[in-house]
Amino acid sequence: MPLNKSFQRRIEVLDACFRRRQRIWTIDALLQEVNEKLEGMGVSKISRRSLYDDLKEMSLTYDAPIEKYQSGKLTCYRYSNPDFSIRNLPLKQEEVGYLRDALDILRQVQGFQLTKELETVIAKLENTIATSVEKRHQIIQFEVETLATGIQWLDDLFNAIKGKTVLGLRYKPFNREDATDYEYHPYLLKEYRNRWFVIGRKEGRSSPTILALDRIMKLKPIQKSFEPNDLFDPETYFNNVVGVTLMKDAVTEQVRMQVQPDLAPYVLTKPIHSSQRLIKTSSKGVIILEIMVVNNYELRSLLLGLGPRLKVLKPKELREQMKAMYQEGLEAY
Prior knowledge:
Elements: H1 5-19, E1 25-26, H2 27-40, H3 48-62, E2 66-71, E3 74-79, H4 93-106, H5 114-127, H6 154-163, E4 166-171, E5 180-192, E6 195-202, E7 209-212, E8 216-222, E9 252-259, H7 264-269, E10 277-281, E11 287-294, H8 297-305, E12 310-314, H9 316-332
Antiparallel strand pairs: 1-3, 2-3, 4-5, 4-8, 5-6, 6-7, 9-11, 9-12, 10-11
């Protein structure tokens, strides 16, 4: 059985049941308790068979001392050791090794002081077991990018978002001569192609403001009441966006493209956007794709980067924009 989030929730409920030794726990009582808790969490109920599987998995994976006993005519369940709880289980050496693997991956995200703090936590965990985890060679490696400017603000912004702190910052867009000072309520950090952005609220504004970290001149926390995020849902705000540019009046459009056979495998195995759908494949291998996205600079740049083997069929405005970009490029050469 995979140790997924739903399973973890269920065994936490079962563990709480078995620690309440004043109550008799039959399989029906356990099933009712688990399903009531799951329903309160907005999670689907489980069957009796799934409950039996969970009890078996608790015994195998967590060494839970679950025993059956008779109370009159009832078959009941409990911990044979009343002091046992899955919450009291120490991390094993192998599990600390998994944390080190995760840290090695996270460490490749440049600019976060957080990785040093995690290193300290893992070192403390290693000290709680008999021996340290053996050093492992690198298994996963990301593309090494030139370090983007502005990355020095990552820790300050991360802590400001976490601590709900208002920032006073100075910002200078590429297209302006002078920098502007204003108060800013940060809500979300987002990375796109090795550039970092922060999404939040300018003081007094009723719509999100997206700032590039490399255009921030300085920032500092200020003593002011933090306005909670009621402007956008971080989980869905960028669902129909390539990159980060999202104008206030932006509309999601159906973008249809024709892709030649030699490029098709690349676009199919690395979709342009999560909404990508294959509409048609011709006998010669030409494919038609659709995505549902906002027409922005990042989308046009991405499509241009795929070259002339990809042609936009609709919408008309995007098609004309792509045509103009190709003509401008031709004139440059």
